[in-house]
Amino acid sequence: MSDNSGAVPPTDAFEDLLAGNEAYARSFSLKGLQPIAARGLALVTCMDSRIEPLDMLGLKQGDAKILRNAGARVTDDTLRTLVLAVYLLGVDRVMVMPHTRCRMASVESDDAVHDLIQEQYGVDTRSLEFHTDNDQLGALRHDLERIRHHPLLPEGLPVMGAIYDVDTGRVEPAGL
Question: How far is 20 from 24, CA to CA, in rounded Å?
């Protein structure tokens, strides 16, 4: 039922997804899967839909905790989640993996993103911090250090940086 505002009822906008879930639920096979990371991995990567985190690393459901955000940045929320994952969910190593041709690494600054959104959509986003950085390796180095030196994460926690190439499917260690 639609109201007079012309807005699409929420369930109509998501009907395709609910139908997809019905098909998924009919053959659901993950019942009983434990909430721990079976392979001890937390992967911080981008929300980009070209990234298939499990497949690209030879993992299966339940092997890793996947943390995704724009640009694969280690934000305060990422650190909070890593602390929980290490102490409560079996994580004993962390990989941070941004990717090639990332929009968040191709803009000059947060200001440029704010300006673009304001100009194109009329929305003022300056209350948000997007963590853009066109020096992708420098940003990755910074993010790895945030994890390595976080006072609530175990000293010596193995932390690795890598870059995923969206054109070849290869993961290249960053050596940082």
Answer: 6
Segment holding 110, helix H or strand E: helix 110-121
Instruction: Write out pLDDT tens, residues 21-51.
Output: 999 999 999 999 999 999 999 999 999 999 9
Domains and CATH numbers, the chain: 34-173 (3.40.1050.10)
Tell me the per-residue pLDDT of 68-105, one tens digit each, with 9 for 90 and over: 999 999 999 999 999 999 999 999 999 999 999 998 88
Q: What are the C-alpha distances in Å from 115 to residues 2, 69, 101, 139, 175?
A: 35, 21, 21, 22, 34
Q: Which residue has the tokens 């499990």?
A: 54
The C-alpha angle 156, 76, 162, rounded to 5 degrees, equals 55
Which residues, in sequence order, are CB contacts of 106 under 8 Å at separation 6+?
A: 134
